[in-house]
Amino acid sequence: MIWRELVDQHDAARERGYPKVEMELRKRVAWLAERGHCSRVYQGRLSDKTKDKRSRRTQVMIKGEQSPIGDPIPLLNLPNVEHPKLWIYALLDDHDKRLLKFTVRLDARWAADKVPFTISVELDDRTMGSGACGHPILHCHMGVDHDRRPQFRLPLPALTPWEALDWLITQLDEAHEPAPWTAPMFSRAAP
Amino acid sequence: MRDSVNAIWSALQQPPLVVVLYDDYGLLESAQEEVASIANPSWPVRRVSTVEDALSTSADTLALLAPVDEVATIEELDGGRDRFVERAVPVVVFLLRGGAGERALTQAPSLLSWVRGNLIDPSAQDPFDPDAAREEFIRHAGRTPEEWLMMRRRGELDGSPESLGLTYRALLLEGPDDLA
């Protein structure tokens, strides 16, 4: 059944998503800074240095100036949206060397009509909801926010946090296209 | 909330010289990769093992210097600081923490003074006290991490960014055996 296969793929991605997660995420933040979409300081604030040796877990986040729970990255120079804020979180299990949970979330308002929206890619640390179809382990929330309708939870293929961030950035700036149709992998003979 | 990542990022903005301590030879490569990932992505990166090789890179190249002979490297740096002043991008020197190079650095007061703001010891900058973090969580959230996670499991949390951040912090502080 496709939904159970998806669960297996998501669980397999936990191992693929563990090593170098902060470096891969940092590369994307650096790309955003290079393109003028955020301050360069956020490259130096994306950190995996919150390591709890007792629980053997590591938290990856944008370290806040004051807040212990992390800050968003205010995005810049995106003419279609207002006040865009990007949150990046990952939680690593250093004992079993796997990714426990991640969230890549954008909150903003459309510039044209000021309607707020959220796009949030989330990998759950545990099964939630009634089943693998209605609440896939890796899914994307899309809606006004997390609490108001319309609110949809879309299933996603087995993406790592940085691949999810690639997808999210590409929705905002097409220049960030990690898999252009012109790449050799997509070249096909004419029919 | 400054940590070693932020300290390295700040130091990289202040050429010509940065010193990063690392714990174990096996961790040298990952320490170099981490510094490269924190650097401006437009900077070319070169890994070198001698001062001469570092100086032979262009001034806008990030030179990651892992000396074969740490003591000789410190002496050479101490005697030749003028040779680095033109660099727009720093040379990053990696020294084994507690090793001969670090000891030699403490005996080269003028070099030490020169690099002091750019001397990064990640082990000293990344402490995490789970008891203090738990107390901070309770002050911030008004409940323990376990109580917070019980609310999450009952679907009682809102979808705000604040709730999201607190959930991650609660999961960090929760022991593996507590996962239901």
Strand content of chain A: 25-35%
Q: Report the major sheet of chain B.
A: 5 strands, parallel
Quote the average pLDDT of chain A: 92
End-to-end separation of chain B in angstroms reads 31 Å
The helicity of chain A comes to 10-25%
Q: Which range best describes the helical content of chain B: under 10%, 10-25%, 25-40%, 40-55%, 55-70% or over 70%?
A: 40-55%
Globally, the shape of chain A reads globular
The assigned structural class of chain A equals alpha+beta
CATH fold call of the largest domain in chain B: Rossmann fold
Oligomer classification: heterodimer
Roughly how many Å apart are the termini of chain A?
A: 33 Å
Q: State Rg of chain B.
A: 21 Å
Radius of gyration of chain A: 17 Å
Number of domains of chain B: 2
Provide key terms for this protein.
heterodimer; A: 191 residues; alpha+beta; eight-stranded antiparallel β-sheet; 8 strands; B: alpha/beta; Rossmann fold; 2 domains
TL;DR?
Chain A is an alpha+beta fold. Chain A has helices at 2-16, 21-34, 161-172, and strands spanning 46-52, 57-62, 73-74, 81-93, 98-110, 116-123, 138-143, 151-155.
How would you describe the overall organization of this protein?
The complex is a heterodimer of chains A (191) and B (180). With 191 residues, chain A is α+β, with helices and mostly antiparallel strands. Chain A has one domain. Helices cover 21% and strands 31% of the residues of chain A. Chain A is globular, with a radius of gyration of 17 Å. Chain B has 180 residues and is α/β, with parallel strands linked by helices. Chain B has two domains: 122 residues, Rossmann fold (3-Layer(aba) Sandwich); 49 residues, no CATH class. Chain B contains ten helices and five strands; from the N terminus they run αβαβαβαβααβαααα. Chain B has a five-stranded parallel beta sheet with strand order 2-3-4-1-5, with helices on both faces. In chain B, strand 2, helix 3 and strand 3 form a beta-alpha-beta unit. In chain B, helix 4 packs parallel to helix 5, helix 8 runs antiparallel to helix 10 and helix 9 packs across helix 10. Chain B is elongated and about 65 Å long. The chains are: A alpha+beta (191), B alpha/beta (180).
